[in-house]
Structure formats: structure tokens, C-alpha cells
Amino acid sequence: MRKVIYCILLLVVVTVIASCVPITPVAAPQVPAAPTAAQATPAAQTLEVWTHEFPPLQDAMTKKWIPEFEAKHPGVKVKMTTIPFAGVVSFDAKLLAALSSGEGPDLWDMGDWNYKTFLDNKFLTPFDPTIFGYASDQEMIDAYVPGTMDIFVRDGKVYGLFSESNTLALFYNLDLFEQAGVAPLPADKPVSWKQIEEIGTKLRKTDASGAPTQIGWQFGFFASFRSPQWYAQNFYELMRQYGQNDIYVDGKPAANTEPVKKALQTIYDFTHTSKIYDPTFLNNWFADFPKGRVAMVLAGTWFVPAIKQNNPNVRFGVAPHPVVNPDDKSTYKNIQWSWGWSVNANKSPEQQKLAQEFIAFMLGKKGETEQAAWWFSNLGYLHPSKAFLASQAYKDKLASDPWLKQWIDAYNNYDIQYVQHAYDEPGAALVRAIDRVVYDNMSPEDSAKLFQSELERLQQ
Amino acid sequence: MRREVKYGLFFISPSILFFLVLWIVPVILAVYYSLTNWKVGRPEKFIGLENYTNLLADPQFRQALQASALITIVAVACTLMLSLGLAVLLNDDKLRGSRLFKTLIILPVITDWVATGLVWQLIFLPYHGVLAGIFSFLGLRDLVGLGWTATKSLAPFAIVLFIIWKTTGLYAIIFLAGLKSVPQQYAEAAIVDGANAWQVFRNITLPLIRPITVFVLVTSFVSTIGLFEPVFMLTGGGPADATRVLPIFLYENFFQFRNGGYASAAGVLFLLLTLGFALAAARRLQYSYYE
Amino acid sequence: MLRIIKYFALIAYSIFNIVPFLWMVSASFKRPEDVLTIPIQWIPPVWQPGNYAQALFEPRFSGYSISSFMLNSILVAFVTSLLAIGLSTFVGYGFAKFRFRGRDGMLWGMLSTTLLPFSSVIIPLYLIMRALGLLDNLWALIIPFALTGQSIFLARQFILSLPSELIDAARIDGANELQIFIQIVFPLLGPAIATLGILTFLFSWSQFLWPLVVLSSQEHFTLPLGLSLMGLGSTFLVDYHLWMAAATIAVLPPLVFFLILERPYLRGLETLSGLKE
């Protein structure tokens, strides 16, 4: 009996100590609501925001946008939840599970690949253009570069607004290049994948025991992260450059085709033939590249703030996205993806309105460019807003970071499209096909055949 | 008499409620949805046994069964033998430090899978992890670069090793208690008759602890086949689905692909599989020992 | 000779068991660059005990920290244990000291649910929690484990051994059944309470899959779930030293409770495996 009492005492002590620790989000300062006689007392409202895990994004929210919004709206509290992006527990799955049961946050950011499903299921609130300062939906759509908003628009109404818009370019570590005696890559013409292999071979280093200490190339989020999105992106850009747009052609599975096999072959070669990619090598994008463990990666504009966070002196160059044949413009294909802010259709009208006000606050209303400038400057998040792209802030940023021009040029020189399958079952089959090539050392021929049969099964 | 019945039922009533809501209803729900084509977010339609036929023909499900079978059978076999061996070693009144040994042996058992999983991730890290360091220290240079969790043939064994480390202690303690409860006279008589230690163990001790052995076998099988955490922490189901065991298959199909009906059918099959094994083994349990 | 082999084997296995923990603690005191070195440095070249404060209190999970997860875990484990103690003894009393038709069948049925892997019923259980509106609520973590076949069986075994004369005497004195349970039976259940407490606490503390399924906001995350936000494949940040510090922190409460309640724990194991009558 005595022991039970000791336990209870211990529990009480631990609980008391633990409860002295603030468990409320540190970033929510207490704003004393001081309603004046002329001002109606604002009802206490809480906004729940979900974001995918990306440390610069979390910092942006907790250090700037949430405190500033709360300061301007006394009585409003914004609660943010961050959910890991990839792995078995994925942000998308959590979001979908919550929304399917009528729950979920008030607003969140999500990848473009979700919009079709979410719209089909009526999870999203159509934005009220007046909250954003526009007179009509069309005016809101026209405020952005033509075509970019398509992913967020259905039946003329807008259901999402850019958190970021991305395509890929080639980053390379200047220090590693210089050490290996490789000249910096041309900024106006892409190199071929073969050239990448040659360069990568020169950049591979091992130590006395044979352990790789430096590798030439790193695919996005393969080993550690297992992100279907990145598997798909790295694959689709290859498949498209080899001449096929999607793994389905005319609605039928088309996995046992030459372009697919060639794409898998490139991945195979990188891993097993030239060995410029090592799937077991420590895989942490934001550390490996700046710390000189990896020489080349494909990434977006957000890569720079992320790697500079802990390595402010990293020296890098940016080159156009590699292509199959630099002299054949038809192989200049690239992929794009966007993240959009959207609002939960299942919440009360007041919540939905407040959520949109928060989004308008973060992204800027009609004509405002300071928000987009801030996002671009601090996170490398690009909002393809016409006003922003014409602004002085944008021009200044381009002048100070000339490598940003690669992204402008990309939209001019490459055929850029969204990826059709990533997180769904065909996407999972694609991941398996690539895994077989990378981890099982299976020939691209055989893997493509299996891939085809899996896609055919799914169609039944 | 009636009073006893009335109050008996009164006292056990919470359990009736619990089991109804937490076991009976879920199983019924699982069976119900397994017979429909329910995709989360859409209304369902009855399709009979189609999910089951699809499952049995699905190479992904078969792969999940294979991965589960491999990991479970190897882990359970090793754990069983190891824990019994440890119990035999500990079953010695003259052993010094037995309290310390017992505590050290059960240490992994009382911690949680995730905290220890974080450590084992770093143990298995090629070139830089703890195992790599140990191999390097032993001069086994070739093994230093092994990608335990990134190689299709090694990953299941990495998981098995983690599971053995984490669970053997529990069964060792149970076996120990079992060994201690065996009446000594039979063993002593056999020794007097000239039997050696191994013969005593094989012909007297083992049969006497059979109920315990069956208990350990069934419990470890059921708990191992249902393990999600070690796989999640070490491999996430890869590489190339080598470790994509049934719990992960279930979870992905429901929470990621939203195949409600399909995942429910897989859950029912999973249940039947383990129930079948458990009942078959439990039949050998002497009924009287639960009295 | 045999003795030496015995000791050697036991020591070898004990080392196998404890090395991961030793490495974990050692890494938890290191600077980031010292954690993964070959050859392994068991003694940190530079001690950094500040790792613990950072791991525990840094609000790196959108404003929440390991300490907030720990608080949730403690709360949930504590409440679950209390409920389990109360409910299991209540129900176990019914199974132990009363006779009615189907009694043993029902007990056997409830106990046999422990033969089923929990992960096979998470989907329908999730749906039930959703229907009850308990998603993303700590109660969803407490309720399913507040009464289990094992806990009922444990309580029943213990109560069986209580002399029935006390109960009969109280009945003759005119006490009603509830009074008998609360005032006579329950106070005698000290050891059973300890056993139920430690077993339920450890079980609840280590839950991962179920919280993963029902919780979505980090405000409610329990410690294993929070820990899973660290680690390879879960995060961009490779602060191994903090992971190890957090893991060490997570290992301490169950270890402490176990050391205090080791006897009841072992006794519980023996009862469940049918060894103790």
C-alpha cells in the first residue's frame, strides 16, 4: 500500500512540475483586448491552421504572420499545427481523414495534387473576392499570370490561393566543383543527363574504408523521406523529356513504354552504373548540400533560404534543369507544383470569413505587393501575381540574387506542367517501380513490365 | 439465487458495455464495410465478397502476408528460444546478481517503441551508425557500409533484431516464473536415476512447462504480427515493400488511399488469420490451468 | 566451467540489451558533430547537458515541446490507470464472487480478445470514435484501454483468493452489495491495485498507433507521437543529439515507475500467464 502512495505522490510531483511548463504555443502573445466605447467588443474567435512541415514556413507563421494578425484582431487567436509531410503518416492523409469526418482546421496549405479530390468532395470554400479587394472572381483570377490559377479554379470560382508556386532548377555546390576542377555550369543552356553523370562521377569521394563521404547527385527525398510527390516529380520530368506526358495515355495504363523504360534506366544508371547517386547516403537535403556532402540537387526557390538557415556561407550556382538533349528543344520539359491556402467548407460562415481574412492578410489584397515580396524574400516562395512581378521589390530581389532568373527563364524556355499521379494508387505503383530499380537492382525492363500489370489491375 | 445473478450481472455490466462497443460493434462494422465498395467520403454499395477475391489476388496483399509471415515467424522463433534459454540460465538459486540481470533483461520491454526506435534508426545507419562502429571496431570492414534498412534482403532482419531485443525479456521473465513453479521432485528423481541435465530438461521440464510455452508462443505471435511501430520507425514499409507488413498495409489502404471497404476486408482477414492461429494453439492449453 | 559459460551468456545478453541505452545516453550529452563518429566515442568529448533542456522545452513542434507531449502522456496514462483500477476491480468482483449462467464463458470470451491484434480493429474503432465525436480528443486514448480482458482477469484472479466469509458476514449485517464492494472488498485489493496500475500505466504510456490514428492537432499529442516527429524520415532537421536526449527523457518515467512497482508488475505477468492461482 505504501508503494502505491509513493507512486501517487510521484505522479503528483511530476504533474505539478510539468504543468509549470507552458504548453500553449509560445508564439501567441497575450494581446489584451481593449474595446473602446466606439468599438463593438470582438467575439473571441480561434482560427485553426494546419501547415505541412517545412521549418522556414513554420518560422514565418509563428514569428510574423500569426502575431501580426492577432495584434490587428484583438480577441482572435490563431492556433497552428504542423504535420510531417511524408512517410506513412502524411500530411495529406491526416487532412483528408479530418475533413472526411467533418472536422479539420479552418484553413491549411496543401499541394496542387489534392485540389481535384477535395473539390469533388466539396471540402473547400469558394473565396469571396471582396475580402481580397477584388470586385469579381474573374478579376481575382486575372490578377495572376495566366494559367497559373487553373489548378485552384472550378466553375469560375476560386478555391485556393498561392502559398508557393514551384518548378525545379539545378543547384550545384561551387566549392565542391572547384575542388574537383569542374567548371561552373552555363547559366543559359542546360546540360544533358549524360553530362551530369560525367560530372557526378568526378565528384564522388570515399574515405579509407570505402564509405562515401561525398556524392555527386541526390534525388529528392528518396531514402529518408519516401515522398511520393518527389518520386513522381523526378520521374515525370524524365519521362516527359523522353516523350511521354503521363503514365496513362488515352486513359489506358502506359507503363511498359520506351519513355518509361528510359526514365527508369536513367535512375538505374545514376544509382548502379555511374553510382553518382547513393540511396543509402545520409539524406537530409537542407544539410547535405550546404555541408558539401552532395554536389548537385534539383530544387525550387525555397531551397536557398532553407539551406542558408544553418549555413549562411554556402556557395552555390544555379543552372537550368538538365534535359535529355540540350540541342533539341522538344526535350525541354519540366514539372511544376504549387501549394495553396484553402478554407474548410464545413465551418461556420464566420469562421470561413475570418479564415479568408487571414489568408488575405498573409498574401495581400488587390494591388498589395509587400506580402508577396516578404514571402519571396524570406522563403523563396513565389506568388505569380502580376502586380508583384511588376513591382520594384521583385526587380530588386532579382538584382541581388541573379540566380532567381533561372525560374523566370524556365517558364519561358521549358514546357512546364503539373504531375498527374503522385499520392494516389498509381503514384504508389510508380514508387514501387522506382524502388525496385533503386533498391532491388531490377532492370528497368522488368520493373516497367510489373508496373504496367499493376496499373492494369488498378483499372479493374 | 436470483439475487446473486442480479448483482453478478450488475457488477460485470461495464464490461459488457465496453466489449460491445469496443469489440463486437467494430468487428461487425468491419465485416459490414468489407462487403461494400466504400471509399471514404463516398456512400457505399454492397458488392458481396468482391473485396476478398480482389485481396487474395492482389500481389500487394500477398506481399504484405509474406513480409508479415517472415518477420513474425523468425522473430517469434528466435524470441522463444532465446527467452527460454535465458530463463533456464536465470533459474539458479545460487546465481549472483540475478536481480540485476533480471532488471537489465526486462529494460527494453518497459520502454516504448518510438523512443527506442529513434535509437535503433541510428544503430542501423550505414557507415556512421552504432552497428557500423561495432563492425569497424571488430575489423569487419565490409559490413560497415551495409544499408540495413535500405536493402530489400536485410530490412526484414533489421526489424526482427529490433523486435527480439525489445520483447525477449518479457517472455524470459514469464518462462522463469514457469520454471520456478515446476515441482522439483521429478527432476531430482530423474537425476538420481542417472539422467543428465539435458535429458532432464527435454523430457521432464519442457513437458511440464508446456502451458507456459504455448502461452508465450501465442502471445508473442499475436503481438508481433500486429506490430506497427518498429516497422514505422525503421523502414516505413520499404524498401520496395519488403517490410510492408499487414498493419501497415491496413493503415495505408484506409488512411492514405481511402479504400474503406478494401481495408476493412483486409482487417477481417487479418483478424481471422491471427484468431485461427491463436485458437489452434490455445486448444493445446490445458483448460484447467485457467481455473 | 559450466558456471563460467552461464555467467558469460547472461552478461553477453545483458550487454546486448543495455548497449542501445548506453549509446543513447552518451549521444544525448554530445554536440551534434560528435554523435555519429567512427570509432564510437562512448564518453562525450565535450559534455552538453544543455541538450536536455533544449530537447524538453524547445517549442519546435509549432509552439509545442516535448514537455507538453509528456504532460499529455502522463495525464492520459494516469487517468486510464485510475479508471482501469476502478472498473477492473468492480467487474472482476462480479466475475469472482458471483455465480450466474454464462459467467465463465463471458470471461473467457473477454480474455480471448487479447488474442487479437489491436491493429486489425483500428479502422472500425476509429469510425466509432468519429461517430462519438471523440476524434482529436484525449478521451479517445483513455476509453478503449480503461477496461480490458487482461485487467478484468487479473482483478478476478486476485479477488478469487479473498476469503468469502468477510463478504457473507457483511451481507448478514445488512450491507448492500455496493457498500460491500467499496468498504470491504476494495480496501483489501492493495496488491491488485498496484499491479493494475503499473501494467495499465506502462501500456498506456507506450501507445503509438492508436494516438496516431485519432489525434491530429499537436496540442493533444502524447509523447510517443511527439517523438515520432523526430527521427530519420520524419523531419528535415538532423539534430541526433536532441533526438537522443528526448528519447532518454521518454524512457525515464516508465523506468522509474517500474523500479518502484517491480514486484506488482512481475506478479501481474505471472497471473496473466496463468502461473499464479
What does this structure look like?
The complex is a heterotrimer of chains A (460), B (291) and C (277). Chain A has 460 residues and is an alpha/beta fold. Chain A is built from 18 helices and 15 strands. In chain A, strands 1, 2, 3, 6, 14 and 15 form a six-stranded mixed beta sheet that branches. A five-stranded mixed beta sheet of chain A has the order 8-9-12-7-13. In chain A, strands 4-5 form a two-stranded antiparallel sheet. About 5% of the residues of chain A have low confidence. The two termini of chain B are 22 Å apart. Chain B has a single domain, classed as MetI-like (MetI-like fold, Orthogonal Bundle), CATH 1.10.3720. Chain B is mainly alpha-helical and 291 residues long. Chain B contains 14 helices and no strands. The radius of gyration of chain B is 23 Å and the shape is globular. The C terminus of chain B is likely disordered. Chain C is mostly helical and 277 residues long. In chain C, 66% of the residues lie in helices and 0% in strands. Chain C has 15 helices and no strands. At the A-B interface, α3 and α17 of A face α13 of B.
In short:
Chain B is built from 14 helices and no strands. Chain B is mostly helical.
The major beta sheet of chain C can be summarized as: none
Total count of helical runs of at least 4 residues of chain A: 18
Classify the beta-strand content of chain A into a percent band: 15-25%
Biggest interface between chains: B-C, 106 and 92 residues
Number of domains of chain C: 2
Share of helix of chain A, binned: 40-55%
Number of strands of chain A: 15
Q: What portion of residues of chain C is helical?
A: 55-70%
Strand content of chain C: under 5%
Number of strands of chain C: 0
Cα end-to-end separation of chain C: 38 Å
Classify the fold: give the CATH topology of the largest domain in chain C: MetI-like fold
Domains of chain A, number: 2
How would the blueprint of this fold be written?
The complex is a heterotrimer of chains A (460), B (291) and C (277).
Chain A: H1 2-20, E1 45-52, H2 55-72, E2 76-83, H3 91-100, E3 107-111, H4 115-120, H5 137-142, E4 153-154, E5 157-158, E6 161-167, E7 169-173, H6 174-180, H7 193-202, E8 205-206, E9 212-218, H8 228-241, E10 248-249, E11 252-253, H9 258-273, H10 285-288, E12 294-299, H11 303-310, E13 316-319, E14 333-343, H12 349-363, H13 370-379, H14 386-389, H15 392-400, H16 405-413, E15 415-418, H17 425-439, H18 444-459
Parallel strand pairs in A: 1-2, 1-3, 9-12, 14-15
Antiparallel strand pairs in A: 3-14, 4-5, 6-14, 7-12, 7-13, 8-9, 10-11
Chain B: H1 2-34, H2 50-57, H3 59-90, H4 98-110, H5 113-123, H6 130-137, H7 141-144, H8 155-180, H9 184-192, H10 197-208, H11 210-225, H12 229-234, H13 246-256, H14 260-282
Helix pairs in contact in B: 1-14, 3-8, 3-11, 4-8, 8-11, 9-10, 11-14, 13-14
Chain C: H1 2-28, H2 32-35, H3 50-57, H4 66-97, H5 103-112, H6 122-131, H7 139-142, H8 149-160, H9 164-172, H10 177-185, H11 190-205, H12 209-214, H13 223-227, H14 240-260, H15 262-272
